[in-house]
Amino acid sequence: MTPGNALDRLTALLSRLPGIGKKTAGRLAYHILDTDPAYAHSLASELDNLHDAIKRCSRCGAYTESDPCPICSDPSRDRALLCVVERAQDLRVIEESREYRGLFHVLGGLIAPLEGVGPGDLSIGKLASRIQEEGTRELILALNPTIEGDTTALYLQQFLKEKLKGSPLEITRLASGLPVGGDLEYADRLTLSRSFRGRIKL
Amino acid sequence: MTPGNALDRLTALLSRLPGIGKKTAGRLAYHILDTDPAYAHSLASELDNLHDAIKRCSRCGAYTESDPCPICSDPSRDRALLCVVERAQDLRVIEESREYRGLFHVLGGLIAPLEGVGPGDLSIGKLASRIQEEGTRELILALNPTIEGDTTALYLQQFLKEKLKGSPLEITRLASGLPVGGDLEYADRLTLSRSFRGRIKL
């Protein structure tokens, strides 16, 4: 084969990215080769720099260039609200909705016994200390409406109730139901049943 | 936003790749951040190295680490056959089919007047000299069965007939028709009509 080893090695590395199969990886590698070398070099330098530039916030666990992160150190944030998310990237979506002005806590995963992820693998002990130290009044669980999300929400509720006995902490969870712009006809049974149970008075 | 500039810059660069939108680019960037830094560093070093390691073969135009490329310098190849492809990456697919044992010539594009690509932008003059120098007997046009591919094939046929007057060069084109494993029911009208015109006697 004419295309040499450098191209094959790049293709192999790209195909390790999620959602990028061998064929797509090959197409991307050829595209990069066809493009101005400056593009490959900027991409290389950003990749080299990435893990040095971006750390985890020592308080909330979010990805950040400064520690504590801009959200944790923003005095205009409502410190009585703490929003629990599974992964650091979930913060971005919530921030972009501009609906929420409290603090965040990144769990680092969801309880999934089949994949060997237990409560001890998540940042749960730290969550409990933060609630006590920061005087959180409402804990909003922004976990995916999946089996793992439901299990983790249930576990957190029971664990924190026990751990923070007597505290007035309120625990809530994001509403689950029909997506805006969605069509009743295409809603699955579970989503529909949740949207019935969570119906609101007009 | 907590995720800092390094992440945004990487996302912006990744979203310039074909088929990678802003959302996918963000997901990839977070995935790279979540993964062992060694992965980001190997990807960076392959990207930095790519354009230095891979050049174009001065004879056929294929991507190669050595010049002339392994195909052009392989004495077991049938030098009477020359296969014309649009882009260097088309070589790989043809090589993988193991159907062809001749030489290649990369045109570097297809004639597309609407996009401002004329015959002068393609490696056509060089193709004519190669045919004369190498004593090519059959020129196989392996161009996409699209309007641009058809136009280019027609142009090449007329241009070479004029240029190589009196030469016994035979020009052929890859058969167009139903894809293997395809279903008649889903074949488009043009493909079906081509497969009728190109039908073969059993």
UniProtKB/TrEMBL annotation, chains A, B:
The gene is recR. Gene3D superfamilies: 3.30.60.80, 3.40.1360.10, 6.10.250.240, RecR Domain 1. NCBIfam families: recR. Keywords: DNA damage, DNA recombination, DNA repair, Metal-binding, Zinc, Zinc-finger. Belongs to the RecR family. PANTHER family: RECOMBINATION PROTEIN RECR. This is Recombination protein RecR. May play a role in DNA repair. It seems to be involved in an RecBC-independent recombinational process of DNA repair. It may act with RecF and RecO. HAMAP family: RecR. Coiled coil: none annotated. It comes from the Bacteria. InterPro entries: DNA_Rcmb_RecR, Rcmb_RecR, Rcmb_RecR_Znf, TOPRIM_dom, TOPRIM_RecR. CDD domains: TOPRIM_recR. Residues 80-179 form the Toprim domain. GO terms for molecular function: DNA binding; zinc ion binding. Pfam families: RecR_C, RecR_HhH, RecR_ZnF, Toprim_4. A zinc finger (C4-type) spans 57-72. GO terms for biological process: DNA recombination; DNA repair.
